[in-house]
Amino acid sequence: MSKRFLSCITIFLISYSLIFSGDLVRLAKVELGDSQTRNQLETLQLKIVDIDKTHLTTTLDDEDVVFLNQNNIVYDLLSEVIGEDELFMLSQKRKNRNSIKFDELQRVHEFENFSLVRAKEQPSVYSADIRLIPLVKNNSYFKNEKVRYNSVQSDALDELINSIITEINAESVRGYIQGLQDFGTRFLRHPNRKEVSLWIKNQFELMGYTDVVLDSFMVGSYRQYNVVATYPATTNSEKVIVIGGHHDSITSESLSDVNAPAPGADDNASGTTAVLETARAIMNSNFESEVTIKFVTFAAEELGLYGAFDYAGKAADAGMDIKFMINHDMISNTSRSLENSLVNVNYYTGSEVYRDLALTNLQKFSAIGGVPGNSNSASSDSYPFYSNGFNVVYFAENDFSNYYHSSEDLIDRYSMEYCAEVIKASAATLITGAIAPDQVSNFDIVDAGDGSTLELIWDYNTEPDVVTYKIQVGTSEGVYTQEYETTENTYSITGLSEGQAYYVGISAVDADGYESFTTERSKIPYSIPLAPSDFTVEPIMYAVNLSWSPNEEQDLAGYNIYRGYLDSEDHVKINDEIITETQFNDHELMSGVYYEYIVKAIDTDGNESESSEVLTSRAVTLDGGILLVDETTDGDGSIQSPTDDEVDDFYNSILSGYQKTNFDLQAQQKIGLADLGAYSAVIWHGDDKTDHQALQFVDEIKKYLDFGGNFLYSGFRPSKTFDGTSNLSEEFDEGDFIYDYLKIDWIKYNLLAKFKGVIGVNPGYNSFSADENKLQPDSDFHFSGVEAIVPQSNAIEMFQYDSDYQPPSPQGALRGMIVGVEYLGEDFKL
Length: 830
Description:
Blueprint: H1 3-6, E1 24-31, H2 35-42, E2 50-51, E3 55-60, H3 62-70, E4 75-77, E5 82-83, E6 87-91, E7 106-110, E8 115-118, E9 131-134, E10 146-148, H4 155-165, H5 170-181, H6 193-207, E11 212-219, E12 222-231, E13 239-246, H7 265-284, E14 292-298, H8 306-318, E15 321-328, E16 342-347, H9 352-365, E17 369-375, H10 382-387, E18 392-397, H11 416-435, E19 444-447, E20 454-457, E21 466-474, E22 482-486, E23 490-493, E24 502-510, E25 518-523, E26 536-540, E27 543-547, E28 556-565, E29 572-573, E30 583-586, E31 595-603, E32 615-617, E33 626-630, H12 644-654, E34 660-664, H13 665-668, H14 673-676, E35 681-686, H15 698-706, E36 710-715, H16 718-723, E37 729-731, H17 737-740, E38 744-748, E39 757-760, E40 768-769, E41 788-791, E42 796-802, E43 818-822
Parallel strand pairs: 13-14, 13-15, 15-18, 16-17, 33-34, 33-35, 35-36
Antiparallel strand pairs: 1-3, 1-4, 1-5, 2-3, 6-8, 6-9, 7-8, 10-25, 11-12, 12-14, 16-18, 19-20, 20-23, 21-22, 21-24, 24-25, 26-27, 27-30, 28-29, 28-31, 31-32, 37-38, 38-41, 39-40, 39-42, 42-43
Helix pairs in contact: 4-11, 5-7, 5-11, 6-7, 7-11, 9-11
């Protein structure tokens, strides 16, 4: 074997293709654990896919996985590596998801209220009953913070609410629902969609609203119109409450015939009416709101929550300070007497207090009862607000309509009295939120480091009538035994017990005595520092870089670094002076030697923390000869299925005389820059068609090549191995590893193509055929599964695909195409 051959990459083979254009992640269920674990998880900004009291279902990238492993946080992987932009939440208002079958969808995991499915691109809509929401639109992240319900009711507030909701009545509700039903259809592709929005706009203007706009957006080639009426605050507060419901309607027939009847009385003229009727009651009462109220009816909900996503996205981008959003979707159907009727109050993670407030208001101001509904529902317009980080609550009928999404969804089938009672409770929730102070924000607790003191800090509440803050402390969640008060935004709690978890709640109180919800966080006071977290080690040229997150103790002096040999119990401090930064480069290393590292925090009294996790690394030196990475599946010894020993014997034979180290990826399960960077060349073989692990280590291979390494790859399907592809042909672009580093422009594959050997293209590359002793005679000594690759202009063509079959036959379809690429750059060699 020539040295020239060792400094190139030989690629024979083919693919199976699905290009990941988004971030690669794993779906996982993470144990929330104790207070300290939750504080650690908060630093990762993990996306909430689903959550309960003990577990968070989320997506993890490689760095998240490293963090969880380093900090011994328990998690279960629910999927392998997957492109986040391929994941969709499939939900319905009715729980019959199992009845939906789409050939283009792959179910990844089932949750209580939705399915997580995978698709190559935005799936087509085959049913009027489903919502398919791209997971990448979910920007709701886990925080170790609880918001607890405080009753802000008083006799004065009750009197105010009652004076306003007496305006709400069944006849007015009937008028709005009938007016919307009379359009015949409000389907988002029908030509009347602007007429519907103008009708709603006119209703607001007849009430006396002067700031009413049509907020337009596009769904495909169809322009849609949200309707937004603004009721201004009487103060200079920038807070906003959004009260909404969608005004479009649909039936299954609408998907093929836009003129098909879709009267949508319950779904969702009733929800639109909640917005209109509440707006009318507020205006008629001259309500003095301390926040701005946005009354919004959303377009294009039925095929993907488009109107709400557009409005909530614009609001988030503009920095709109939305206190909370109230959603209404199907609120006019009941099969029971009014006094026995129920409404579901659907709720969202972090917004449970608004569920509690709504349930309280149903009891106090409505003739019907309320029950907690679904959590984190992705089936209605509240979800886009939740996914953009806003608080939400969502009213929906408890007795689901039998005429859902049909031409029989007509007003005479529903109870206008029931609908009015739902609206009264919703309006009471709106009024309470518009009067009570907002909860405190950016609340944090810092350990003073003396074992008995916690320092609290939060942002001042910007509402002009807030006069004080109430602080409550206890040793159980939501159970407080001590209470303090301050007008400042900082406070020191002293006299605490070391090692005890404390739960601290803060609320704002205004001049009228109304109190905000309580924001609760927890912390444990210690006299010695906590072990540093987020500890990582990264090989660099002739050194190892160590980094970690800063400790929060107020009496922190700095950190000490300890190093030892692999599997040694002795770790020696290597810094002469206390390190005050949160990173350190260790240069005093021997080539090719693995070292173990730990970091400890130290305070001003000289107290040293427990050790961080022990991490192992070594420097990049590129001087250790060849690393032979075995990714080939261990076979049974049959034809084209060699055993591990047979594969090892083959490579040991052709590499005899070279300095070589074996690395069995099948056994080790992972490989990193510390493993690769000590070697001048890496030979990576994956000589099988099915098992491909390299994709999850692409970033480590990139790092190796960025340091100037030499990399040779041999395998059947490089585009599957390094890009996860599945198409029969695929072009690659800048940003793709296979394009930037393997110098492949595009690939082509044919399932029936038959491969015999290669024809050398340039001098130095000899033609050769497959070993007939390793093939079945009935295959005419050909085999399948070899991918054709087209290199970029700065790479060299090495070999052509050889076959006894001629084009245009399927067996000869790839004959003459390239199957080997070489790149000898100044930056790296392949």
